Amino acid sequence: MFMIRADVLPPAVRFDPPAQGDGMTLKLLLANAPNPTDNRNASNYACYPHIGIVQLATATQEALGDRVDIRVVDGGISNTETVQQAVRDFAPDVVGISALTPTYSEALKIAETAKASGAEVVLGDDHAIFFPDMILRNRPQIDYVIANDGGEIPFVELIRTLLDGKRLLSEVSSLAYRHHGVVHVNPAPKYALSLRNTIPDLTFIDDVLDVYADNYRKQFGHLHGHDVRPVTVNNARGCENGHKRCTYCSIADLTVNTGDPRGFWKTIDQYNREHGINLFFEVYDSFTASPRYVDALIDSTPPHLKRRIDDGELQVMVYARALGLTKRNNVDKLRRLGVTRANIGLDAADPEMLEAQRKNKTTGETNLEAIRMLNRAGISVHASYIAGAPGERPETLDRTIAGIRQMLGEVELSSVEFSRFIPLPNSPAWDLLVDYERPNFFKSSEEIDSYLAALGITVTRQDREEMFARFGDQDLLDIDELGAFWADKFTHITERYALERIGEVDEMVSAHNVRTGNNVG
After folding, report:
1. pLDDT tens digits, one per residue of 86-103
2. Which residue, of 198, 362, 430, 507, has the fewest CB within 10 Å?
3. Are 180 and 149 in contact (CB under 8 A)?
4. CA distance linking residue 19 with residue 16, whole number of Å
5. Which helix (H) or strand (E) holds 172?
């Protein structure tokens, strides 16, 4: 089989809808694939709903009304077996599954169950975007892939097509599918959040909101003087470092794409009134990426919400970059917006490793100053670090650990994650590992050679052939194998050494009564 673009697709190709007749209801189950058990150790795992599948459910319900019967299942607060049982019990016509690279193996198990139950299977989210054609060539249990970071419009188009069959599959934007054994991938336009960003209806998951609240309370309740009900919101995407993304970053699209600021406050108000939500994790990849958007949020804050923010009744958590926090009075702006927690990728305290991770002029001093500024503003900090970046040596790791020790002694942190480096698709690290001949984030193979040479790393032609054979044409990747191979070929330490040092840091952090964790993807 081979891939063919949609612009050469014969116009006669049309989907034949299920034999369910006009007026019948299509049963749709949307699921978030869970992490494999061994990877469930992120500090905030299962503390917040997977809001993407709730948004898809909402948009589909608004577009098709009672023509669809929708269920939402978040594997993040259960497990793969629970999701599989939900599929069997509901007997859906269509199952949509959200999968990241670390969760893709579980997504395939859910897809197998869905196919055995007679359902059509749609895959979406980052891993699906990376490999749409490869997934459809290798995985017969997957029928469709939505290959767009803004999946709301394409998904509704697909469900409408499956329901009534009045349009061609070739007209469904961002869709990958098979026809007569050939994989077709339709064009994927950019969708502006300012024009369309449906507010997810939390009634789809109202029965499990307390589960997230309980998980959050057990892990971070001590940071608050009142009961907390958390939820994720996503009114903006992108990162100011997108033009030169961090070495490990595998987010599908880092282009800054901001929604209507009034939509953000409408979401806050609605969720608080209807569901008692009082902590909102805005998962904007970097909250300081668009100063104009931050200013617009401040200017458009409704007075009644501003009063509740000032009284501490409504709180916000964000992702941010240390360098961005030290500019434009951004920390004060976060405080005015009700931000009480910030998640920052500090990554290293060694200047060589910060440069190797493409941190764009960020230094150890920048990181420390950003944390100090946040602390003075009363904002708690989740700090994440990485062991095993390109060219990592025992002495560079020593300096990073010394930097963590200094930070623990000088500032207050809510949690610290120290994780091993895992090269993931759609990252600069993947260029080093697999896409050497056609890099996406380096200018050329020659630039990669120069980058590695500066770090004392030599990769032979035989090494590259081995790497491509093991990882280059695979849609299912073993995270542990990737981590071990990376440490062996692209660092001056062993994976075992990295894990031992991570364990030392976990003990040191725990001794300061700060929560620890490790993360992938």
Report:
1. 999 999 999 999 999 999
2. 507
3. no
4. 9
5. none
